[in-house]
Amino acid sequence: MTTTPVPVAKRVPTERTHHGDTVVDEYAWLAAKDDPATIAHLTAENAYAETRTAHLEGLRAELFEETRRRTQETDLSVPTRKDGYWYYTRTVEGQQYGVQCRRAVRDGETAPPISADGAPLDGEEVLLDGNLLAEGHDFFALGAFDVSPDGRWLAYSTDFTGDERFTLRVKDLNTGEVLPDEISDTFYGTAWSTDASALFYVTVDDAWRPNRVWRHAVGTPSSEDVVVHQEDDERFWVGVELTRSERFVVIDIHSKITSEVRVIPAANPTGEPAIVAPRRQGVEYSVEHHGHRFLILHNDGAEDFALAFTSADTPGDWTPLIEHSPGTRLEAVDAFENHLVVSLRSNGLTGLRVLPVGGGDPYDIDFPEPIYSVGLDANPEYRTNEVRLRYTSLVTPDSIYDYDLVNRQMVLRKQKPVRPGPDGRPYDPADYEQHRDWALADDGTQVPISLVRRKGTPRDGSAPCVIYGYGSYESSMDPWFSIARLSLLDRGVVFAVAHIRGGGELGRRWYEQGKLLAKRNTFTDFVACARHLVKAGWTAGDRLVARGASAGGLLMGAVANLAPDAFTGIVAQVPFVDALTSILDPSLPLTVTEWEEWGNPLDDPEVYAYVKSYTPYENVAPVDYPAILAVTSLNDTRVLYHEPAKWIARLRAVAPQGDYLLKTEMGAGHGGPSGRYDAWREEAFINAWILDRLHRA
């Protein structure tokens, strides 16, 4: 078996100078996606990775088969009611993609119809079959799936490359005809007018920033579409949606730290957008329509957000509804005719608070496990006293509940089936146990860690462990269930999630302490969690693999430089590892909008020096690195493929004694392979590599 690293083409290095600092980039040429040498390099890297992992082929097949065997492949989601229809998605054994369907509500039918074996419901109407749409394509993703208020039209959009640029179409659900209306290069987000004559959608600028909201008249050429709002401030991006009440089209305008919302009456789609509240630097707010008022969730003098309202007819001053409570982060509000439901976070856990509209005290919904994740699921109906919840934990499969807001009763509609594993035994959550532990960061901060293991796994330092992290954008890594993870747990692996600063697990302050000039806290927190797992006997340093993706891939590259001795392996998926180069280039997708997260190194020499101090690519050193598996996608528009490609090349050049692999999906985007079987194979590839590093294969 050859172990010769991939030769790198010899090209003239690129130099750049900022704030008196000159940087030589030997591998900048890899950014030329259309250069045959770049494609040849990535292809050679894939071949090298396949050769180096050929001995794991049997284990990969075994892990894939375990995931397939445990998954109910022919399945049906819990139908969601909207007016006179139940909407749901079916999957069929052997098919990669879901089938979007609906069925008319029958007289007296209040509970959602459920097919235990996943078979089609009697009388169903197929709206879209992803498998038919995907024929002839290696990649397929739906962007929009939006049924008009009258139930006649379906706006849907498709992406066949993974670059998240969609072609928008309209289908007549009465006849099955797809209209000639076809709009290319759209982004996520659509909204219908009340009479379904107009469809609003979003497009991007040259830097792939969502910057325009358009209005399309159904049945007319897209060349006649009208720009409703154009955002010229490059820090901001736009989105569009229809309120649950179907009264307003909402245009959301956001930067990382500032918001502005404009509304158009859905019954008057050609009207001018009205500003709910002008943007003020540092003030974030969102709008939900409820009767005569707009509900305003905001951080004006409220670090963890407060809830207020203003008139929907003449928006003005904000009247408090829920005062700010430090440590309780209000994340969203959903309005129904007789109730408001607030999604919140406290003590590191998600929660739901109900506010009856006609009187009565607010109350929180209780859940049984010490570690869990809960949130509202699809709830399209405004006039209802029942809401749909989604609940999960590290040991509890995704569970769909309907909750009666008046009687406070919860009914389990469906829990994701987990079929027997290789031993033939049914899945039993009691065979596994979850824990909450705390690590002590360098500055004395307590950092939470969530862990899951199979019962009987020793806690004497002998168990192997995977530690996962993210830590950016106030995104929280709340507990989630994974069928593929069971294959690790059943082989004696402990799985840990480090809830590090930069995420939102402990409120807005937790996020603020892990961004801009405090970003290094994210990385040192993760190292502290890794060290704690060893000290507390969960694992040993030579039995610990770290894993992260996207901004979590930046985390992986940073901790590889900070503490290479702490891990035996690192998995970095679509990793943001050439952060300084990217943040210095305003022409790249997302760069300018990201300056409020990372800082602007173009204008600020302090930011430049700080980002340079931690960006993985700039800080590769001649040390003994753990084995590294980098996984990326050629068509990724969020973290460009060349970042990990350059990183691996530099690692090989500077620390050639290390074991580094680069695997590139040549026809996918940021989320990796699109089909479920392809995604399972990708996960099996990664988990086989992890088990090999942990010596548990």
TrEMBL record:
SUPFAM superfamilies: alpha/beta-Hydrolases, Peptidase/esterase 'gauge' domain. Residues 7-415 form the Peptidase S9A N-terminal domain. It comes from the Bacteria. GO terms for molecular function: serine-type endopeptidase activity. The keyword Hydrolase applies. Residues 480-693 form the Peptidase S9 prolyl oligopeptidase catalytic domain. Keywords: Hydrolase, Protease, Serine protease. One of its GO terms (biological process) is proteolysis. The keyword Ion transport does not apply. InterPro entries: AB_hydrolase_fold (IPR029058), Pept_S9A_N (IPR023302), Peptidase_S9_cat (IPR001375), Peptidase_S9A (IPR002470), Serine_Peptidase_S9A (IPR051543). Belongs to the peptidase S9A family. This is Oligopeptidase B. Serine peptidase. MEROPS family S09A.
